Amino acid sequence: MTVGPVARDQATAGFFDGTANGQFLLRHCPSCGAVSAPQAAQCERCAATDLDWQAARGDATLISWTVAHGRPGTDPVVACIAELAEGPWWWSCVEDCSPDQLRPGAPLRIEFRRSGPQDETVPVFTLIAEVDPSLFSRWDRGGQGSAAAAGRSRGRRPARGRACAADPR
Amino acid sequence: MTADRPGLTPADLRPARRPVICGLGMTELGKVYGRTPAQFAADAVRLAAADAGLALGDVDGLLVSSGVTNGVHLDLQLDLGLNNLGLLSEVQAYGSTAGAMVQQAAMAVMSGMATAVACVWADAPLRQGVSGSAAYGSAGRVPSGWRGLSAATGMFSANQMYALAARRHMLRFGTTSDQLGAIAVAQRDWAALNPRAQLRDRITLDDYHASRWIAEPFHLLDCCLVSNGGIAVIVTTADRAAGLRQPPVWVRGWAQAHPGHSGRRFDDFGLVTGAATAGPAALRMAGVELADIDVAELYDCYTYTLLVTLEDYGFCAKGEGGPFAASGVLGPEGKLKVNTGGGQLSSYYLWGMTPLSEAVIQARGQAGDRQVAQHDLVLVSGNGGVLDHHSTLILAAAS
User: Fold this and answer.
1) Kind and range of the H or E run holding B147
2) What's the whole-model pTM score?
3) In chain A, whose CA is at the least distance from the CA of B263?
4) Chain B residue with the nearest C-alpha to that of A77
5) CA B12, CA B53: separation in Å to the nearest integer?
6) What is the CATH architecture of A13-152?
7) What is the ipTM of this complex?
8) Can you give the CATH number for the domain in which B58 is found?
9) How many domains does chain B have?
10) How many CA atoms lie within 13 Å of B106's alpha carbon, on the beta-carbon side?
């Protein structure tokens, strides 16, 4: 089991429709253009209540994290706050990472998981492996690839199972 | 940050009409089983009335609140036989509730709608044979909605959310685990002097580091206790308190602040709290300066909460709470008298009633071995949600 079960309610129905389709939906304000958090009942900038849904790109950066230790015999979980590329913050977990890899501003990617076939799909974060900066200069000299492309490349593929578990220390 | 809100203050009143705390009632606290939150609450009000020298029937205002069990309600008036109330309400502002209740009671007696208002908070999350974390956990419930979504990805408890706040403070300001540990050690030294404290054995920084991880950067000894029990205070006017049993404690200034960003973007999350606004506002209302404060009883659900509150009230500069806390300024031998009963970390965890009860005891001069010599002005904080809600009281010993 990668994430826990969660049930939809009236307030979250639209959001879970999005996650079922692999989309993280934000609230977009047609009148002022601002993007608000999915939970927003009104535009966070102009207070308009007639909001659209807008799919997030899926990129985020790490704001803060905690390695949360549960009962003996359970794996620790890395819980985090991340800033989505569109601006809102989201509280979730970072899958399959070693806490040593975490630093503020670390690039993250939204992935979707669910507890079981009957459960709602929930967004989690994975850490995008960063390339050693010394490699950039070597590639630049050799004219191979670009730093931007290197930065975008996915690093470790999350192992199956225990998606949110941190590597034991 | 917010506009000045000029209004009537206790200093504007004739001295006889000033709001004062005249009674304090505390049940047995801690691992006390077999009583419901409502029973603890009723006992606390009876004890507070007796402490004040009032008959129970003299209480004509009642404000009630509870913690995770949500077990104290308006029918407490029936349990107490109080059928002639001019004020009755449940109050809920999480950890800032105790302060909020005293503020509401003070305004009620100032206006004359009630003359003796009991403010009571009680909870009984601990059950025999069940761990404290289970008592405060959400095990067994099927999570739903936005909160359920957080829980599904591992955000189970306040421990994690405050740990995220503490981490942010560490990242921004370089605050260290040793500095958080210094707070735990200093408060245990105070608790050793408090007969009511649940944990009275002194600890070292090594003990702190050896305690198990809860949610990094928090060890077990960064986290508050879990306690059963009830505490009540009675607020009346100075003229009414004059003939009663206890030295009155003047409620001289107060304020609240509700940044309320939990779960949403808040660029100051973990860095600045509602104390930064409520503190100066309460001091202004009381007509005193921070430097005049003799004793501070601060909400310390975690070591970090105490640290950031010290900064926001201005006891040290923003970002310097870590070095300040570790400088030896805390503890019975330190020059800043903070959390003199051991706080929520070491004495008992009755939410905002923990700092409030110790403040009343100190202001009266009844703290025994841990009594602070100079105790004319006592600052009390309350903090609720995940740094979402804040209350400040400035209490003054009767002169």
Assistant:
1) helix B145-152
2) 0.92
3) A91
4) B154
5) 28
6) Beta Barrel (2.40)
7) 0.92
8) 3.40.47.10
9) 1
10) 25
